[in-house]
Design a protein that fits this description.
Shape: globular
Number of helices: 15
Structural class: alpha/beta
Bound molecules: D-mannose
Strand content: 5-15%
Number of strands: 12
CATH superfamily of the largest domain: Divalent-metal-dependent TIM barrel enzymes
Mean pLDDT: 94
Distance between the termini: 36 Å
Strand order of the largest sheet: 1-2-3-4-7-8-9-12
Largest sheet: 8 strands, parallel, barrel
CATH topology of the largest domain: TIM Barrel
Number of domains: 2
Order of helices and strands: EHEHEHHEEEHHHHHHEHEHHEEEHEH
Radius of gyration: 21 Å
CATH class of the largest domain: Alpha Beta
Low-confidence stretches: none
Amino acid sequence: MKAGWRWFGPSDAISLREIRQAGVTDVVTSLYEQPVGAVWPTRRIRETARECRANGMTWSVAESVPVHEDVKKRTGDFRRYVENYKRNLRNLATCGVKVVCYNFMPVHDWARTDLHKVLPDGSVTLAYDQYEVCAFEMFVLKRPGLEKAYDDATRARARRLWGKASARERKRIADALLTGLPGTTEDATPEGLRRELAAYADIDAPQLKRNLYAFLNEITPTLEETGIDMAIHPDDPPFPIFGLPRILSSAADIREMARACPSRHVGVTLCTGSLGANLKNDAVKIFREFHERIHFCHFRNLLHSEPGVFRESDSHLVGNTDMPALMFELLKEERRRGAEIVVRPDHGRMLDADKGRTCYYGYSYGGRLIGLSELRGLEAGLKYKPRRGLPKRA
Ligand code: DNO
């Protein structure tokens, strides 16, 4: 595996030098200052690649080249945005960036209900509770049609939860769901969110999927010409939220995309934390089935207390994704390709070691350092071939 790390550019509290010191070879970054849909200045792409090189690393994955909402909806100026996207792909390829991670989630990128979950050891992690989401939709967003989205028992439990919640807890939930998490450009307000959701009222999942496939097939000649691999990020969480249509939440969705978009350049970011939020998803099986189309990986783990209620794990190795089995699949695929795949430790706890600087939610130094080290240790262990087994127990 190639050791990747997400860097948020010059505004990141973590420097490229520290990233290099963590053992990273491949930087995952973007031109975060550019508005969604814009043509990125080639000068800025070149500068960023040069900066990574100057620090002993390669910029190999662009995460993200965001897709404009017009393209997702196929309305307004979408043709111009598709052309801009192609120009960005060509310019990135010229500077050696050959993998693009993006998502096709409407309106909202990823979501959590608790961005400061303090664990018994004092470290901080991120958590999600579908009952809190339901309560937020009922009492803050006041979204119509909730009876269709949630069954009676879920709504009753959400009502009880909200009734018991203190003002502080209610604020924590609303703030978490409205915060612009990394990948999103700004924080939302309930009114703003309601407006944006209304724009998707007539777009259901099959329609959004058709829009995704149309976009991918439009850019495929550029992918073939530049050699860029498009790695779609799965929906996070991989089930409906705010009534928005979902397009990449399961193996069936990936299968459908692969059938509609025959180019191998059209692939996936295997994000174990996103897929793993639905206990029905098995990342190892998904890797096995779509191995040729996995162009980039986000590895981390989740601990569920029940379906739809989970927190990000203390360890990238422990949780509902069988990380050793997954790493084994990754190594098999690398052997088959004769090339390594970039894996980045996705999220990590905020440790005391991170105190004193403001990291993006989930993107601490200490927590990801542990994650990366665990993954590299696992890789080294799986590659090791002992001459003899361990001695018998005394
Ligand atoms: C969350 C990230 C996402 C991801 C985008 C890709 O931590 O994995 O924000 O970068 O969905 O477009």
